Amino acid sequence: MKIVVTGAAGFIGQAVSAELKRRGHNVVGLDLRADEERNIFASDFTTPGSGAEHMRGADVVSHTAALVSYAMTHREAFDVNVRGTKNVLDTAEAAGVRRFVHISSVVVLPDVPERLDETSVIDVNGTPYVDTKVLSEVPVYHKMIGGRMECVIIRPGDVYGPRSRPWTALPYESMKKKLFALPKWGKGHFTPVYIDDLARGVAAAVEIDEAAGEIFTLTDGTVVTCKEFFKPLATYTKTGWFPVLPSPVALALSQGIYLWERMRGHRSESNPSTIRYFMRVTGGYSTEKARRILGFEPQVGLDEGQRRAAEWCLAQEGAARE
Fold first, then answer.
1. What is the pLDDT of residues 176-218, one digit of tens each?
2. Which tens digits make up the pLDDT trace of 64-73?
3. Over 80: is that where the pLDDT of 39 sits?
4. What DSSP letter does each residue of 231-294 carry, written as one string?
């Protein structure tokens, strides 16, 4: 099949593209900057019709492009995550694309201690990233209900591994500088999924007929504390111990960092929204539906995944010195 991957130069987009190529598909990438050696062409999804010439003749569009940050404004997030998604959908439909696979996130689900599944209600919480991921699903539902295109929605958990900015690169840099700390005594909850496992799940959603019209949650099926999640990365990179703090202290520190960086004209992911994410109480998410329909079976556990992530961090650091 010919498959177009948006955000093909990004963390998830690269992994999905590689997995689809491994399965023998003809993959065309779209991103803000072209890289024709990797068959990636320039496209700005905030512009209606962008990338249309590359979607003609495609069977599937896998939409991984998104702004993932807790330091952006609502307008910035809305333009890419919501308006951009609708533009890609409309362009794909006009080009005759049969299936659209949308990468959403488990953040669209409320943070509650119960175990949730694809039938659970979704909700906004006032954070630009979360709210726009919720809203990004709306145009997909419209196409899905209208029957004009086969649509699939994927909701990954906390995607980590080599090249992850929020859960690998930024924490490692902060750990090296002795600036990494966790709120809630490190007892907030994470729901991990290793990048290669996610890519296999997305590829299955591209290929399997029964996936059409469905929503799938993809995690490794576990719930771990933030301390458990980040400790292997610190261990394998040998950055040493990192503190865990009471939540009010962590929030006050992050607010101070946020204001200081703002005064300097910078943005920082070390802000209260990120700290609140590290305080989640989620009871996790069922992957039964993904296992049943997609054959989704995670292969990489947390310790091994963080060992690979640590190797990448150290390799990047070594390459920067050369």
1. 999 899 999 999 999 999 999 999 999 999 999 999 999 999 9
2. 999 898 888 8
3. yes
4. HHHHHHHT-----B--HHHHHHHHHHHHHHHHHTT---S-SHHHHHHTT-----B--HHIIIII
Q: Is the Cα dihedral 255, 257, 263, 269 positive or negative?
A: negative
Q: What DSSP line would sit under 112-153, residue for residue?
A: -SS-B-TTS-----S-HHHHHHHHHHHHHHHHHHHTSSEEEE
**Which SS3 state, helix, strand or coil, does residue 109 take?**
coil
Q: Report the alpha-carbon distance of residue 42 to residue 53 in Å, rounded.
A: 11
221 phi/psi in degrees, rounded to 5: 90, -5
| Residue 268 in this model has a pLDDT that exceeds 90 | no
| Helix (H) or strand (E) run with residue 100 in it | strand 99-103
Is residue 269 within 8 A of residue 170, CB to CB? The reply is: yes
Is 3 strand, coil or helix? strand
The residues facing 40 across adjacent strands are 29, 35
CA–CA distance, 221 with 298 (Å, rounded to integer): 8
Residue 257 CB neighbours (<10 A): 17
